[in-house]
């Protein structure tokens, strides 16, 4: 995903970087986020990463998925990104 979106916005070397929950918590608090809310966000992202958040979805998947592919979305993303970043 990082490579596709990075290429679309002219940053083909864009990388996906993972860091620990504690690093995320410290960074969120470090930029001024309320520690309780930061902790809840870290918990939510951990649930996403472990797939716990998606258990219901995985047992009730739609019969038909959307038709938009990442490469197609990347074009729209790049147009908005480039317009906003100038």
Describe the model.
The protein is an all-alpha fold and 86 residues long. The protein has one domain (2-84). It has five helices and no strands. The longest helix is centred in the middle third of the chain and has 16 residues, at 35-50. The chain is flat, with a radius of gyration of 17 Å.
Topology readout:
Blueprint lengths: L1 H7 L12 H10 L4 H16 L4 H5 L10 H15 L2
Helix pairs in contact: 2-3
- Summarize the helix and strand pattern as letters: HHHHH
Residue-averaged pLDDT:
92
Shape: flat
| Unreliable sequence segments | none
Helix content: 55-70%
Count of DSSP strands: 0
Separation of termini?
A: 23 Å
The total tally of domains equals 1
* Alpha-beta classification: mainly alpha
| Cα Rg | 17 Å
Our count of helices gives 5
Largest sheet geometry: none
Approximately what portion of the residues adopt beta-strand conformation? under 5%
Give descriptors for this structure:
single chain; 86 residues; mainly alpha; 5 helices
Question: Summed up, what is this model?
Answer:
With 86 residues, this protein is mainly alpha-helical. Helix content is 62%, strand content 0%. It has one domain.
């Amino acid at each position: 995903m990082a490579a596709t979106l990075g290429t679309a916005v002219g940053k083909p070397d864009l990388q996906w970087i993972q860091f620990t929950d504690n690093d995320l918590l410290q960074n969120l608090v470090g930029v001024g986020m309320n520690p309780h809310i930061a902790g809840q966000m870290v918990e939510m992202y951990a649930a996403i990463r472990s797939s716990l958040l998606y258990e219901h979805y995985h047992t009730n998947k739609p019969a038909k998925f959307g038709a938009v592919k990442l490469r197609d979305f990347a074009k729209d993303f790049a147009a908005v990104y480039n317009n906003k970043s100038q």
